[in-house]
Amino acid sequence: xxxxxxxxxxxxxxxxxxxxxxxxxxxxxxxxxxxxxxxxxxxxxxxxxxxxxxxxxxxxxxxxxxxxxxxxxxxxxxxxxxxxxxxxxxxxxxxxxxxxxxxxxxxxxxxxxxxxxxxxxxxxxxxxxxxxxxxxxxxxxxxxxxxxxxxxxxxxxxxxxxxxxxxxxxxxxxxxxxxxxxxxxxxxxxxxxxxxxxxxxxxxxxxxxxxxxxxxxxxxxxxxxxxxxxxxxxxxxxxxxxxxxxxxxxxxxxxxxxxxxxxxxxxxxxxxxxxxxxxxxxxxxxxxxxxxxxxxxxxx
Length: 300
Ligand SMILES: NC(=O)Nc1ccc2c(c1)=C(Cc1cc(-c3cccc(C(=O)NCCN4CCCCC4)c3)c[nH]1)C(=O)N=2
Hints:
Bound molecules: ligand 464
Strand order of the largest sheet: 1-2-3-5-4
Largest sheet: 5 strands, antiparallel
Helix content: 25-40%
């Protein structure tokens, strides 16, 4: 199959912007299908020494090959002299964050439904030995049927082995990188886990921490850890300084409290073998059939 080129697409509006990429809505000239094309400037990537992250995202998306409905699909990649292009799934209904802000917060049924889809997505990532490391409502999209699609694997890590949590001397590659260049990776302040702050050691449990933060935000409209600077936010995280608004549903509260645990190995699900049975069995998901979640409830 011939490699695509930019002229195979009609580029439309910008639908996403990151520090190293711009995402455009684009239409395939032959098929009229819509895609999200992530464009990266080669010179910027090289200057900022981010090539490793770009290569990692492509490798991770290839591993994920989107057999899971809750992960964006990488259809193709191509380049021109100055840019790299990733042709990805277009999620028509945009970022979860925009919908949380639009409705102020989600009701119990919507919070529970999207928490279930996130659990299923995290189980798939775990089965492929992928840690996302930057999960947040901006990186969770809604497709045309309002199912979630997780995106932005630029910060992801491929776990070497299941018992990776035991320090086998092979440090987290970002630690090695940080030892080399002292710029160890950290996710987005409000969602970063304590272990990534302290030892820059991430594991599947780091994504469970972020899940706790995201569920808190869906159910309350607010992030659990906020502050005037990253340093103040980091302090609150390391001190587990957050509180639930009055009237917060007790089942969701208990679920979040079991995820926002400083010690990663003690988080709900951290010691589960394959599926996150400890999460599935929590009272928050009582009456849920994880094998058939049914259609998404109308957002409200
Ligand atoms: N860093 C990354 O990898 N970023 C990516 C990757 C893939 C990708 C990606 C980002 C996408 C972002 C995206 C953004 C949007 C979008 C942007 C702006 C407006 C809208 C929009 O108004 N959609 C209609 C529904 N709105 C949504 C907001 C509340 C009111 C109703 C959608 C749709 N999809 C996408 O569709 N696919």
